[in-house]
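Appendix B. Raw example, untouched.
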Amino acid sequence: MKKLRSATIEQIQEVPGIGRKTAETIAVALAQAAPAAPAVNTATGEIIEDEEPDTTGGSSGEPVTAGAPDDRRGQKT
């Protein structure tokens, strides 16, 4: 939605089946709509960041598996 909200009418028209009139309607509707509240992990209360590609070479985004805390961090006991 973030990318669609910032797209131009011409960019929206690039989607197959969407003409100029529909693209204009979409752009107007998204400009008037309030942005959604941030997503929250209900188990931890943490705010979930946008799903942007990780260019830092960090975590793969895989969830931590259950186990002893040292196992989860890859540490040996």
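End of appendix B.
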